[in-house]
Amino acid sequence: MPEGRRRHADPVRRHALADPAPHEDVCLITGMISAFPTLFEQAEEALARRFGRISRASKIMPFDFTDYYAPQMGENLQRKFVAFEKPFEPSLLAPAKLWTNDLETRLTGNEFPVSRPINLDPGYVTPAKLVLATTKDYPHRLYIGGGIYAEVTLSFVDKAWRPNDWTYPDYQTEPYHRFFEAVRSDLLERRKHGIGRES
Length: 199
What we know:
The chain has helices at 3-14, 37-51, 70-73, 93-106, 174-192; strands spanning 27-34, 54-57, 61-62, 78-84, 118-125, 129-134, 142-145, 148-157, 160-163. By secondary structure, the chain is α+β, with helices and mostly antiparallel strands. The chain has a single domain (24-192), classed as Alpha-Beta Plaits, CATH 3.30.70. 26% of the residues are buried.
């Protein structure tokens, strides 16, 4: 083979494809919206039975950024987040969303004067981002199976949570960021001590 052709082929051999590697464990979170605070307690009990002990919970905060949910959920909506201690496999986000959708249905009863008394939105925190699951498709969302899509709602850049162009206004606020920063710190501490699904 001519010398020139041998030199041309060498870089191809030097740059082999990287081997796929499993994603590290992440921290599962769930956002809840309701006008009926007692439903938060019922949802948390069911979530803990399904996903393990709740390691961190936010304060209950007013959810007054939009009236989008009012026809289904009523007025004076409140928001709360919970995070789970058990390490979470991120490829299981779609099944988690389908399960929380079913839980929403189970928590709906005649004692509530609205058709959707609680909204449950699971997602996960990594050191680099907050990912949320949704049933709605948009250009910035990726399909992850079962009719579920995922989006990167917040990115952690330069030691702070940063919104994207599509990030909902409430997720751009400091109280949310403080909660997700605490969850991120918990996750990093678990990784530092080698606490994972196989521990």
